[in-house]
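Changelog note: in this version the structure field was regenerated for every chain. One regenerated record is shown below for reference.
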Amino acid sequence: MAGALEGIRVIDFSQGTAGPYAGMLLAEQGADVVKVEPPAGDRARGRPAFHVLNRSKRGIVLDLTERADRRLARQLAATADAVIIDLLPKQTRPLGIDYRRLSAANPSLVYCAMPLYGSRGPWADLPPDDALLAAVSGISGAQWSYRDNPVYLVTPIASYAAGILAAGAIAATLFDRYRSGRGDYIEVSGLGGAFALQTSSYVLPLGAIEIMRLAGRGDPRGPFPTYRVYRAADGEWLMLGALTPPFWAKFALAAGLEEYLADPRFEGAPVGIPVPEDRQELSSRIESIFASRPRRHWLDLLEAADVPVAPVATRDDFLNDPQTIHNGMRAEIVDPEVGPTVQIGVPLRMEGSAIRGPAPLLGQHTREVLDALASHAPGALPMSASPSRDGAAPLEGVTVLDLGTIYAGPYNAMLLSDLGANVIKIESPDGDPWRVFGLGFLGVNRGKRGLALDLKSDEGKALFYDLVRKADVVTDNFRAGVLKRLGIDYETLSAINPRIICCSSTPFGSSGPMAGRPGFDPLLQARSGLMRAQGGEGEEPVYHQIAVCDFVGALVAAYGVAAALYARERTGRGQLIETSLAAAAMAAQAGEFIRYEGRPADPPGGPDLLGVSAVYRAYQCSDGWLFLAVSTEAQAEALGMQAGAALPAGTGHNARNLLDAPLHGEVAAGLERFFSMRCRQEAVKDLVAAGVPSAPCLAIGDLFDDGHLKANDLWWETEHPVNGPVRQTGRIVKWKRHRMRLERPAPLLGQHSREVLLAFGIDRGRIEDLISRRVVIAGADIAADP
């Protein structure tokens, strides 16, 4: 069966993590992706992740410093539908692969630029490095720690997020191109990927930045007593995930904590316990309970009581987990360079999705691709294109019914809204449980109109079917079986509307041994090895402050919807898209989930981890932290010239000694003294000028005023009817011709019920009758007219 992007050719000029990941994701939905490498190869060749992020592609070598090869690169682009380039515009022009030149020869080209730090601002020219991206974007500074220091994350989650975001932006632009016949320039930076992961954290009432700066860090074990990791009697760790009141009640009854259910101090539990001493009392009580029995006892007891819980496991455990295998997320691939491997599967289950083959050897397909140049043309375009207006978002005209709750489902729909879709947030009369989190709710529900509807009633279900008849997409993140019980599963909805696209993101998958289990983000952080990898061998696991699995899952799902919309333009048929938090947990660690004989070890984790060596780690200056990312002898020599007097005798003149110096030791102590006396801005400026890669490690309170982030236009301000003026993440994708649609803040419960139903052609009398019987809830302050 053909994949959603069958017939699309992508020329991938990128290296490292983000760009190659975008290309791999496009290839595994059917695109023909040609990876172009310089004679020395991608800078990531030789690393385990390379074999995952570049699989399913064909590989060629071109030396773009040579005129003849620059001409071949332009010929390739002239036959392509899309290109991926991770250089700044000033770097592409001398190589002959800048947007102006390539689009002049191919006006329908979708050109995706992926500068790691954005295309503007003081740090745009930094050498590519995933840890520097985490520093500049606030990812490492926002991670909770015991000692109030930024944390070096051993998994490059921001770069992975940028790759998935880019794949979605490319697919959405291809969808619009099919309708309009016109290509466009897209910019998806690593900063955009980082902001995509922090959309629910980077939300602030205007004027409250000082409050953000003074806010304390959360507990690296988890934010709430019933939502954190605990150690059992046998020394093994487990993650308790009782986030909502129903799960809190189930846990309290199962664990013998019934008295807390009647205690007025805990009436807002599990998340609304206002007094810190009360939260600590509950945490200590739970800690002592778990410490009384081995982990297996608690897992069996709580799973039987339908309480969300998970063991803290390793990546190897997860690769061999029966649910992982059932989901097709454990793939065995023979790589031509390293031999038999075990890798992650395709995180999106769609028509025709598949791994197309291993990563290519350097230049493996050069002759094959160049010999076929004359016979290939860009993918099919419509016979009569209807040009989309400049300034519109690419998914304009698409209607999405959003059934999601908490994070992953709502954020998927918000991304589609940002891309231009008309998104209707459909909630139960009680509302999305995430509403209690206030600003966090705003971060994943922007741009939608709100409809409150009782889907458990016959009238509510009939009304939903009427909406489906005129909709394009339905998204949800229920656990397996819920859609079928409600009568709104894909089989039912596609019989009503054969063009409907349904995107379902379950916790563990739609079938299999764990399909019916409840699941929240940190449960998959725990099961997938993410917590264990960050915590380090023999140390306690680390709860990631970012809801990594939720947000990556939403990015994956939004990409799938955009690709399915493109496929529907060609075939006229909708389809079912399935993904899961379990798949997203692996997608967020794609390059780490590969096993083969002789594989190098991953970087070691550790508590409050600062880095991996004395010259690749965070240091505290007099007014904040910076990250030093020295990896070559030339860079080490330059660092020695800068900090020589502070280093042990003779060390500053020996680059090899500096590179080999451990994370903690004499060299690190000398650099700690050196930086502690320096202003961060000046220290970074001097280091960069000397050729030493470094960047400020932004804390959460620094972000909203940071000049580099402002220069890259990453914030958006709006007026919320309850919270007032708010600043939150903004244009994480940029185009020349299109524009992200950021129009309205997250809706109040039922705020647009009448407006939405009238727009769908529902009779006014029927609407008022449904409202009177509370099948539909309408905001009290909303007028009857739209």
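Spot check on this record: The longest strand covers residues 32-37. Residues 157-180 form the longest helix (24 residues).
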